[in-house]
Amino acid sequence: MSDSIWAVLPAAGVGSRMQADRPKQYLPLKGRFLLDHTLECVLSYPSIEKAVVVLSEDDPYWPDSQFASHSDVIRAEGGSERCHSVLNGLCALEGIASDTDWVAVHDIARPCLRHSDLDLLFDGLGDSGAILASPTRDTMKRGTLQADGSVVIDHTVERDQLWHALTPQVFRLGELRTALERALADGFEVTDEASAIEYAGGRPRLVSGRADNIKVTRPEDLALAELFLSQH
Ligand SMILES: Nc1ccn([C@@H]2O[C@H](COP(=O)(O)OP(=O)(O)OP(=O)(O)O)[C@@H](O)[C@H]2O)c(=O)n1
Ligand SMILES: C[C@](O)(CO)[C@H](O)COP(=O)(O)O
Predict the structure, then answer these.
(1) Whose atoms come closest to the Cα of 16: which ligand?
(2) Which of 18, 37, 52, 129 could form a disulfide with 89, with the two C-beta atoms 3.0–4.6 Å apart?
(3) Distance CA 227, CA 136 (A)
(4) Where is this site: Positions MEP for the nucleophilic attack (predicted)?
(5) Ligand 1: distance of its center to the CA of 18 in Å?
(6) Domains held by the chain: number
(7) What's the domain range around 201?
């Protein structure tokens, strides 16, 4: 790829679903912070120039990261939701990166990413960018919440071409920043970068990636991440 590639790593979440005593990105995983595994993968990928790590303003753990003083790490301040943190991260690249450069947004909470998947992703970029994704393996149901708090099946979702959106998600820096700003200004809910690009009329590609590129979200995910990392 001729254009430069930059990374933005949203890492300002509180990890409430993890029910831990600290944000999940700072939980121990194979002898180091979970986020240090993610940073090692991203910063060791030759084509990535620098990584913007988006941290909570009051993050007390970061100075103990192995990458706290790394020369290819740029810090940015997190926002109230993931999309705001990502936008802050994109803005931190202004004056450093060109609007036509590629930016790869990757959840810090996905430590099992492999370089082989990054190769596939960057080789598979379309004009509107691309995201790593994994085809659903299970029958998918749409539920309806009942008055008594139970959930009943409303219908079975057509499974053909149904994918789990993963990260990294890769777009042109200026295009993504503009799409995010517009979606947020319009009050459109943005849970991943592709949804903002879609809202702006873009049609990002889905690049099939490994299903073990999990986002550590719930307590049981940590042991799974440890198993997957042991297979690297
Ligand atoms: N305001 C926020 C919220 C989330 N994130 C980051 O976005 C990624 C995906 O979000 P998620 O898995 O939901 O993390 P949390 O928001 O921390 O988890 P929870 O929803 O359980 O609180 C994580 O790397 C998280 O650190 C962020 O940078 N800024
Ligand atoms: C970006 C993402 O990881 C793609 O699946 C997901 O949307 C993040 O959602 P979260 O609720 O912020 O974890």
Answers:
(1) 1
(2) 52
(3) 21
(4) 159, 215
(5) 11
(6) 1
(7) 5-230
